[in-house]
Amino acid sequence: MAKKFQVTIHEPWCKGCGLCIALCPKKVLELNDRVKCEAVRVEDCIGCRQCDNICPDLAVTVKEREENA
């Protein structure tokens, strides 16, 4: 069974720099109409945490999600 991940964006901290969007290999993130990062395809997240690591404002958090079978 594939692992699932939760991508959380703390929007007040996001400056909309786009670094996380540029690094995401699965294109999980996009800028929304408020020019803030948003997880639009979280089901595609592979948990590489590149977005979490590159965010200069610590606005992105990736955690493994518990799946209830």
From TrEMBL:
GO terms of molecular function: iron-sulfur cluster binding; metal ion binding
Superkingdom per UniProt: Bacteria
Keyword Iron-sulfur: yes
Gene3D superfamilies xrefs: 3.30.70.20
Domain 4Fe-4S ferredoxin-type, residue spans: 5-34, 36-65
One Pfam family linked to the record: Fer4_10
UniProt entry keywords in alphabetical sequence: Iron, Iron-sulfur, Metal-binding
Coiled-coil blocks: none
Name of this chain's protein: 4Fe-4S dicluster domain-containing protein
